[in-house]
Amino acid sequence: MTDARQILVLWDIDRTLLYVGDIDRQVYRETFAEIVGRPAERLPARGTGVTMPLAIRSLLLDNGVPEADVPGLLPRMVELLPQRLAAHADDLREQGILLPGAVAALKAVHAQPGYVPTVATGNLKPNALLKLETFHLDEFLDTEVGGYSSDNDHRPALVAVAQKRARAKYGTVFTRSNTVIIGDSLEDVRTGLEGGAPVIGVASGKTTADELSMAGADIVLDSLEGAPRLLDAIATTTRKHT
Predict the structure, then answer these.
(1) What is the pLDDT of residues 47-95, one digit of tens each?
(2) One domain for residues 114 and 127
(3) Domain boundary residue among 32, 65, 94?
(4) Is the pTM of this model over 0.90?
């Protein structure tokens, strides 16, 4: 297997592969109430792709928590959040949905010789793994080499995190020329632009195809349906940056 053929594929999770409805927001509500001691009146915006630690920081500030108190409360909320999501495992199974074409797309990428499919996600690692395992998607991903907001709350930094882990495991140096991000949000595009990876935008979330393209996505798909189209997009974007 040559370096030229090895490609690190960084999947986003929420609204790219699956959608869990209001469960994440309910988990924010419960975590805020337990740590702060009162209900949250304002919740993080939906579908932005912002990392969970930054979303929690905004949640605290937007609900009147003094900025001086945030450094003490934020780590406690980050620690509690995965426990709260795990308590909703049944809800994830019953209410969550796989997005059109997601499983076939994951299978197709996983089957490509030399491709290393993993994730670069705004989720904390325990939350990401729970979502993926609930829908049996983890078998198509090497979650060991992924980048999670547990690693860094600055999402563009997760590209280098995943590249370093993948290099250590697979012995290949991963750069802009053999790394690609697949995601639905402007934050996914920013992650690629600032983190050093081309981006395949998927208009399956709250961001339109035009918005993804204007933000700088290299290729934009309307959905993950049609796995050959996605494989062509991966080959095209990585060739372009070689």
Answers:
(1) 888 999 999 999 999 999 999 999 999 999 999 999 999 999 999 999 9
(2) yes
(3) 94
(4) yes
Kindly give the parts of the chain with pLDDT less than 50: 1-4
On the 0-12 / 13-18 / 19+ scale of CB atoms within 10 A, 80 is middle
Domain co-membership, 182 together with 106: yes
pLDDT for position 2: 38
The pLDDT assigned to 37 comes to 97
SS3 readout for the chain: CCHHHCEEEEECCECCCEECCCHHHHHHHHHHHHHHCCCCCCCCCCCCCCCHHHHHHHHHHHCCCCHHHHHHHHHHHHHHHHHHHHCCHHHHHHHCEECCCHHHHHHHHHHCCCEEEEEECCCCHHHHHHHHHHCCCHHHCCHHHCECCCCCCCCCHHHHHHHHHHHHHHCCCCCHHHEEEEECCHHHHHHHHHHCCCEEEECCCCCCHHHHHHHCCCEEECCCCCHHHHHHHHHHHHHHCC
Domain boundary among 94, 122, 140: 94
Both 16 and 27 in a single domain? no
Domain range for 31: 23-94
Q: Is the dihedral of CA 65, 66, 67, 73 positive or negative?
A: negative
Domain count within the chain: 2
Residues 52 and 40 in one domain: yes
Q: What is the distance between the alpha carbons of residues 112 and 110, in angstroms, rounded to a whole number?
A: 6
